[in-house]
C-alpha cells in the first residue's frame, strides 16, 4: 500500500485527508513542521510527499530544496493562492506537480495516482536505452552521463525516458504534458520549459536535448548501442 507524507501546519487537515486517502488504498502520514517532515522522510519509505508552501521554520520552497538534496521522491506542492509564480518556482526547485488551495481531496488523490502511475510505467521495448555518452535504465530509473550517475526527479526522468523512446522525434509541449502529467492534472506549457531546462543542466556537458523553434523538443544523440 503506497505511503504518502503530508507536511502542512494545518492540524485539522491531516485526519480527514488520511481517512479519504484510505478509501483509495493509500496510507497518509503527516507532519506539522518541516523538521519533523524531513525526519520522517529520512526514517521511512514514502512513495510521495505533499508540501504546503506556507510553513513555519522554512517555507515549502526551501523544504523542497532540502528534500531534493537527498531524494528524488515525487513532490506535490500546495499553493495557497494558486499563483503562477508559486507554481513556476516550485517546479524550478524540483517539484513534480502543484495544486492550488482550497482543493478537492479527490483531485489531490488523482494527482498522486498520476505521479505514481508515471513512476511505475516502463516502456515496452526493453529496460535500457544506451546512447553515446548517455545510458538510461527504465527499470531501476538510473541515468548515467559519461559513466557518472545523474540524480533526476521523477518528472525529469519521465521526460528523458519519453524523448529516448523515439530519438529524433519532435515532441511538442502538448504531447509532453499529456504524456507526463496525465489528463487529471491542470496543464500549462511553461512547466515543460522549466523541466527541460533543469534536465539539460543536469546532463551537461552533453548537449542532447534540442529545441526546434515553434515545434518542440527532441533527443539528438548517437545511435543506441549495446550496454
What features would you highlight for this structure?
alpha/beta; 2 domains; Arc Repressor Mutant, subunit A; Rossmann fold; 227 residues; 8 helices; four-stranded antiparallel sheet
Describe this structure in words.
- The chain contains eight helices and eleven strands.
- The protein is an alpha/beta fold and 227 residues long.
- It folds into two domains: 3-120, Response regulator (Rossmann fold, 3-Layer(aba) Sandwich); 128-219, Winged helix-like DNA-binding domain superfamily/Winged helix DNA-binding domain (Arc Repressor Mutant, subunit A, Orthogonal Bundle).
- Helix 4 (84-92) packs parallel to helix 8 (190-203) and helix 6 crosses helix 8.
Radius of gyration: 18 Å
State the share of residues found in helices, binned by percent.
Answer: 25-40%
- What is the tally of beta strands? 11
Main sheet makeup: 5 strands, parallel
The CATH topology of the largest domain is what?
Answer: Rossmann fold
Q: Which geometry do the CA atoms define?
A: globular
The SS-based structural class is alpha/beta
Low-confidence stretches: 183-187
SS element count, helices: 8
Please give the order of strands in the largest beta sheet. Answer: 2-1-3-4-5
CATH class of the largest domain: Alpha Beta
Please name the fourth-level CATH homologous superfamily of the largest domain: Response regulator
Strand content: 15-25%
Number of domains: 2
Q: Give average pLDDT, whole number.
A: 85
Straight-line distance between termini = 34 Å
* CATH architecture call of the largest domain: 3-Layer(aba) Sandwich
Amino acid at each position: 500500500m503506497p505511503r504518502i507524507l503530508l507536511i502542512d501546519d494545518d492540524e485539522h487537515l491531516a485526519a480527514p485527508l488520511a481517512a479519504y486517502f484510505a478509501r483509495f488504498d493509500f496510507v497518509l502520514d503527516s507532519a506539522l513542521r518541516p523538521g519533523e517532515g524531513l525526519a520522517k522522510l529520512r526514517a521511512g519509505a514514502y512513495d510521495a510527499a505533499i508540501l504546503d508552501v506556507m510553513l513555519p521554520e522554512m517555507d515549502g520552497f526551501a523544504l523542497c530544496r532540502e528534500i531534493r538534496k537527498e531524494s528524488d521522491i515525487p513532490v506535490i506542492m500546495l499553493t495557497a493562492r494558486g499563483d503562477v509564480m508559486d507554481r513556476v518556482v516550485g517546479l524550478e526547485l524540483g517539484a513534480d506537480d502543484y495544486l492550488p488551495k482550497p482543493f478537492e481531496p479527490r483531485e489531490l488523490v488523482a494527482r498522486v495516482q498520476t505521479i505514481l502511475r508515471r513512476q511505475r510505467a516502463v516502456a515496452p521495448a526493453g529496460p535500457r536505452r544506451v546512447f553515446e555518452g548517455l545510458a538510461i535504465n527504465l527499470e531501476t530509473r538510473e541515468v548515467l552521463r559519461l559513466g557518472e550517475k545523474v540524480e533526476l526527479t521523477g518528472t525529469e526522468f519521465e521526460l528523458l525516458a519519453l524523448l529516448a523512446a523515439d530519438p529524433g522525434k519532435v515532441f511538442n509541449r502538448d504531447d509532453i504534458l499529456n504524456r507526463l502529467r496525465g489528463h487529471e492534472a491542470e496543464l500549462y506549457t511553461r512547466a515543460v520549459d522549466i523541466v527541460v531546462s533543469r534536465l539539460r543542466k543536469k546532463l551537461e556537458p552533453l548537449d542532447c536535448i534540442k529545441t526546434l523553434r515553434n515545434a518542440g523538443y527532441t533527443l539528438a544523440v548517437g545511435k543506441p548501442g549495446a550496454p
